Amino acid sequence: MNIPRTSFPRIVIIGGGFAGVALAKKLSKQEVQVVLLDKHNYHTFQPLLYQVSTGGLEPDSIAYPIRKILKDFPNFYFRLANVEEIDTEKNKVVTDIGKLKFDYLVVASGSTTNYFGNAEIEKNSMAMKTVPQSLNLRSLILENFEDALLTSDLNERNALMNFVIVGGGPTGVELAGALAEIKKGILPKDYPDLDTRMAQIHIIQSGDCILKGMSEKASHKAEDFLEKLGVQVWKNVRVTNYDGKTVTTNTDLTFETATVVWAAGVKGATIKGLDAEDFITRGNRILVNEFNQVKGFGHIFAAGDIACMVTDEFPNGLPMMAQPAIQQGEQLGDNMLRLIEEKPMEPFKYKDKGAMATIGRNKAVVDLKRWKFQGVFAWYVWMFVHLFFLIGFRNRMVVFVNWVYNYIRFDREARLIIRPFKKKLKSE
Amino acid sequence: MNIPRTSFPRIVIIGGGFAGVALAKKLSKQEVQVVLLDKHNYHTFQPLLYQVSTGGLEPDSIAYPIRKILKDFPNFYFRLANVEEIDTEKNKVVTDIGKLKFDYLVVASGSTTNYFGNAEIEKNSMAMKTVPQSLNLRSLILENFEDALLTSDLNERNALMNFVIVGGGPTGVELAGALAEIKKGILPKDYPDLDTRMAQIHIIQSGDCILKGMSEKASHKAEDFLEKLGVQVWKNVRVTNYDGKTVTTNTDLTFETATVVWAAGVKGATIKGLDAEDFITRGNRILVNEFNQVKGFGHIFAAGDIACMVTDEFPNGLPMMAQPAIQQGEQLGDNMLRLIEEKPMEPFKYKDKGAMATIGRNKAVVDLKRWKFQGVFAWYVWMFVHLFFLIGFRNRMVVFVNWVYNYIRFDREARLIIRPFKKKLKSE
């Protein structure tokens, strides 16, 4: 890869997610060369992907050009690349656009959907981890309703209008709530010639509660909210398969549906060459020490979802969420500068800022350290926090306009099938 | 197709563009059944597609769900369908989702890119008539700059940074201006390690002026504006071929480029079964009388780009633009109601509201009937008119936010490669 060598040490960062961007920002204007590699040319604000899938937001408002984030930093290089392998002996990363030597490497490659080895579910269900995936889901939902109009087979029509969400974490809960609001507010107007009351939204959770990482109060209230919205919540049910028509479970329950959204798990997006058994831990994550160093290396780090950092409070590793990623990225930046200057690094301490999820208009749950609350105020807090963490003034303004409009008009106007998912356009 | 028969006459409209939507709105709440067919589930505001291609606007802000436009009209049916054939004997349209009988038919299928029979140009160049096409162009432009970073071959790098726009109409001129502003304002910041001064923007026009349909003053001023922005304007040059690498012309001029945008012509998007030689006229348009009736039929109409309505002022047919389409759609609505009530129809009279084009910030040309002006004020008028004609309050707000932001910050933030055009994403 065509990047000039300078006298500064070269830090290669794999991934422009929360951890990678926070780290790169910390390293800006320092005496290091930073090369950021990502397969997209934009940073994705993943917490709002479900709003893209449900037509509430345009994808462009939750994505931000990576080049722009670091445009004022002269020693910053971005390359659009798929990293294929890490050569830890020669200190090189191998990508689809060539090889690159590094002095320091930070793997911030994030996570990917975990199908727990079930290839049929992987093939037939939808994921929602990236912008294109979310747009595919948006198209599929809308295409299903268009197709429901065309069939006179009642079972087929019901299957087209049934939505099964597997996984009761924030993603599943937020998506279910948004779908329920579409069912109530938009479908009857858009499809007057369809009995949209038949549309069903199921959320299937293998454990005995939804929003497992949050307080009992939040979990209960979220379930209440979902049920008020007409979502059917199934607990202690584990999905065993989906063949494209029928969801089977470990109980007698089955679901006929054309749409399964798999939000039941994520796993670290490991890279060949840095996947030795002795440091890959549960969830396919890379075990790191309190300085984000990968076991056995002083100059190779991992941060964010891919990194499994064990603390007293989190014996299975910090949660795979935005906050630990941002905090690790920031601290790792400081630590790498310390390391280069041969000063002692400081151990990472996670500041748990709490968790939140929104279920629908005026319905959210918020767990702060000392204060847990639910309802309208929680909903405002949720919106404020998400606007605050969104990168870019324009994005914030556009999201704000959309939210105000959607709130006042009970609407979601981005219900556009721009790239059909089921059938390709004959001509574009 | 599964649409109930009522006692009301059924009007089938093919196409949800300016003409189709204006017509459907006129027919709403009348004693007719309206079935609108379109291959997209949204109306596209085509005049702003070039801003999507250049990252200035998100596609969702210039598209509007067709179902929403007519949600309060109980006798309105929309179907997402490709119309394959019109059976004028049995009064049926044949589509990919089934057949449909009509009492009245309005073909408002618009226009498509005219390559004048050159299959190689069609294969290798980009068009900008639909949202997906515009997004493809956006991806290609950005991918080219990413690729330019990777090559050490100077000729290849220049080809990746050269843009050839064929056609000096409003589309070509507006796109060229937008690319020139990107070159000036964004590329040097985004690609500090690339000599973006080498990027060239060419506009090739076969005639002896650009913006042919406008006043001489507008044409000259637009050319001035383009030249000030660094666009190279080639007049009296006709492109003869583009093999994916080299543009050849009828002169000695050739251009090495990875990106050709073909904006040199459009033609009517005719449909099999309604393409008899005796009424298909130049530009593949359907000749209609002053009531938009297709020759030989009393109940089959054509409106908008596809319809060639000859007037004293426009012996080759009304221009293929938004205004004639909207006006025809509206008047045709009134006329169809008159026809159904067996009242005499009124001949269409085109109210020429003028034409306008924008070249860049503070740079536009406006021709009104009595007043032609250029520059800053023209630019404000251009923006106001486009915001006014855009459908939907949310769209107007989002476009407005983007424009204010882009103006103040000299920026275009939607420079995102969401669906790569050149190479497919390995995993999304």
From TrEMBL, chains A, B:
- Tell me where the transmembrane regions lie: 376-393
FAD/NAD(P)-binding domain span: 10-329
> Does Transferase appear among the keywords?
no
Enzyme Commission number: 1.6.5.9
Q: Which InterPro entries match?
A: FAD/NAD-bd_sf, FAD/NAD-binding_dom, NDH-2, NDH2-like_C
- Catalyzed reactions per annotation: a quinone + NADH + H(+) = a quinol + NAD(+)
What Pfam families does the record tag this protein with?
Answer: NDH2_C (PF22366), Pyr_redox_2 (PF07992)
Tell me the ranges covered by the External alternative NADH-ubiquinone oxidoreductase-like C-terminal domain, including all copies: 353-408
User: What is the top EC class of this enzyme, as a single word?
Assistant: oxidoreductase
Entry keywords, A to Z: FAD, Flavoprotein, Membrane, NAD, Oxidoreductase, Transit peptide, Transmembrane, Transmembrane helix
Query: Transmembrane helix: is it a keyword of this entry?
Result: yes
What domain of life is recorded for the organism? Bacteria
Q: Which family does it belong to?
A: Belongs to the NADH dehydrogenase family.
Protein name, entry field: NADH:ubiquinone reductase (non-electrogenic)
Q: Which organism is it from?
A: Tamlana crocina
